[in-house]
Amino acid sequence: MKQSKALIVEDDPQIADILSIHIKDLYLEPTIVSNGLMAKHTFEDNKYDLVLLDLMLPGMNGIDLCKLFRSKSGVPIIMITAKSEEIDKVLGLETGADDYLVKPFSIRELQARIKSVMRRSQSQIQDQPEAKSVLNYGKLTIDLEKRTVHKNQQRVDLTTKEFDLLALLSSNPGKSFNRQSLLNLVWGYDFEGFEHTVNSHINRLRVKIEDDMTRPTYIMTSWGFGYRFNEDIL
What we know:
Blueprint: E1 4-9, H1 13-23, E2 28-33, H2 36-45, E3 50-54, H3 62-72, E4 77-81, H4 86-94, E5 99-102, H5 107-126, E6 134-137, E7 140-143, E8 148-151, E9 154-156, H6 160-170, E10 177-178, H7 179-187, H8 196-209, E11 219-222, E12 226-229
Parallel strand pairs: 1-2, 1-3, 3-4, 4-5
Antiparallel strand pairs: 6-7, 7-8, 8-9, 10-12, 11-12
Helix pairs in contact: 2-3, 6-7, 6-8
């Protein structure tokens, strides 16, 4: 079986070695980097299928690295940290991480999380609609295959999760999704208690695609329930 490539960004050599040993069982070829700035350059010079990213790093922290990686690629990212406070988890998820693992963790849990994020990543690639991969709504053009968005023919830069939210809503105009459903469908499984993550992503999307945030044209609020994409746009 062809091996995929994984970037391990971890400054604890013992943990890095453990991660390296056990991801090989999943046919992942590891590259270990212990410094944030070094990780930035390594990522830019290579193509990876997975990133395991520690939060606390010398040179450049994991949150800033996650933002940088996500701006350049849709690669699955799992943040790994010794911190368990809710704010750290929220920050990790809202800056583009696909999952979050708190030290100490079991090898079985690590491998299950890796399988999950990589399976979701492959599913998102394979499940794009073939018949209609480009959606046009008024001034907005959404290319599901190329994962690009244009408004008034000008490129709109979205994070991976912002695009995934927009793609889901715009592919189902008029259908209302509650926040928990959006968490499950876009983040891949139940992040109970973090529904405000959806609200913050919706707000950022509106800033980028709406003419007037107070009177949205595209992403509508279904009061008391969640959000929907406006089915009346021509």
